[in-house]
Specification:
Layout lengths: L1 H16 L17 H11 L6 H18 L12 H13 L3 E5 L2 E2 L4 E2 L29 E6 L1 H7 L4 E6 L5 E6 L2 E4 H7 L7 E5 L5 E6 L7 E2 H9 L4 H8 L4 E4 L2
Parallel strand pairs: 3-10
Antiparallel strand pairs: 1-2, 1-11, 4-9, 5-6, 6-7, 8-9
Helix pairs in contact: 2-3, 2-4, 3-4, 3-7, 3-8
Length: 252
C-alpha cells in the first residue's frame, strides 16, 4: 500500500519542491487556505489511504506551506474514491485552521518523499536535520544514474574532482575542474532523485551516481510520517519529529 502511495507522491514532491532551497526570509503571510483547497491538494498527492494521524500531519503541513508560499501546489485532477475522499477530508476538517509557527510566524513547512537516516539541515531554526525512521523499504529509495562523458561535457565545468558533504550526510557542493557547484545545481541538472548521493568514476570518463531517499530532504518526510502513523504516533508527535521547536497554532 505505502509503496503505491509514495510512488505517486514522488512525482508531486519532486516537481514542486526539490528545486526550491528553503527560503528563510521573512515573508508576508498568505491567507490560511480553505479546507477544500487542502483536501484537493492532498487528493492530488495520493491514491491510497494513509493512517489517520499521518493524514492530519500532512494536512497541517500542506496548509502551512500554502500560508507561506500561496496556492502554488497542484490539486487533484481525477475523482477520488469515496473512501479516500472521506479519509482525507476527515483529516483536514479535524485540523481545520491549524498551521505551524515559529516565534509567532508561519514557517516554510517543506516536505519531501523519503530520507535516509535523517532529514536535511537547513538554515531556518525549524528546519534542522533530525533522525527519521528506517525508510529504506520504500520502492525507489535507492537510485542509480549513469552520467555519460557527453553529459559531463555539456555541463561545461570539466570532470568531477570531489564531493563535499555536510553534517547531515548530504551533498553540499561538487568540485569540478572549472569551479564548484551547489548540490541544487548539480542535482537539478542531472535529474537526480535526492541530494543524498555518492559519485563513482567510470573507465570511460563518465560517472555512476548512487542516491538514497527521494527529494530535497527538508522538513516532513511523507513516507516517514506514514510509518510513524503506523506506529501509533499522533499527528502532533509526527510534526514535532520533523519540525524543530514549532508551535501548532489555529488561525481563524
Amino acid at each position: 500500500m505505502k509503496n503505491l502511495l509514495l510512488l505517486f507522491l514522488f512525482t508531486f514532491v519532486w516537481v514542486c519542491l526539490l528545486p526550491l532551497y528553503p527560503s528563510v526570509s521573512v515573508k508576508e503571510e498568505k491567507p490560511v487556505p480553505e479546507d477544500e483547497y487542502v483536501i484537493s491538494v492532498m487528493l492530488g498527492m495520493t491514491e491510497d489511504i494513509l493512517p489517520p494521524e499521518s493524514l492530519k500531519a500532512i494536512a497541517v503541513t500542506v496548509r502551512t506551506y500554502t500560508a507561506y508560499h500561496g496556492k502554488v501546489l497542484p490539486v487533484a485532477t481525477v475523482t477520488p474514491s469515496d473512501d479516500l475522499y472521506g479519509a482525507v477530508s476527515d483529516a483536514v476538517y479535524a485540523t481545520s485552521g491549524e498551521v505551524l509557527t515559529y516565534s509567532g510566524k508561519i514557517i516554510n513547512a517543506c516536505f519531501h518523499t523519503c530520507s535516509h537516516k535523517s532529514t536535511a539541515d537547513g538554515d531556518a531554526p525549524y528546519l534542522k536535520s533530525v533522525p527519521t525512521v528506517d525508510e529504506s523499504g520504500y520502492k525507489g529509495f535507492f537510485g542509480e544514474k549513469i552520467i555519460t562523458p557527453q553529459e559531463i561535457e555539456l555541463f561545461g565545468k570539466g570532470n568531477i574532482l570531489s564531493v563535499s558533504y555536510g553534517s547531515d550526510g548530504r551533498v553540499k557542493s561538487v568540485e569540478l575542474e572549472h569551479g564548484s557547484v551547489s548540490q541544487n545545481e548539480f542535482t537539478e541538472y542531472f535529474s537526480l532523485n535526492s541530494t543524498d548521493f555518492t559519485v563513482n568514476s567510470l573507465p570511460d570518463g563518465g560517472y555512476t551516481v548512487f542516491t538514497r531517499g527521494i527529494g530535497n530532504g527538508y522538513g516532513l518526510s511523507l513516507y516517514g510520517a506514514c510509518l510513524l502513523g503506523d506506529e501509533g504516533k499522533s499527528y502532533t508527535e509526527i510534526l514535532n519529529t520533523y519540525f524543530t521547536s514549532v508551535t501548532l497554532t489555529r488561525k481563524t
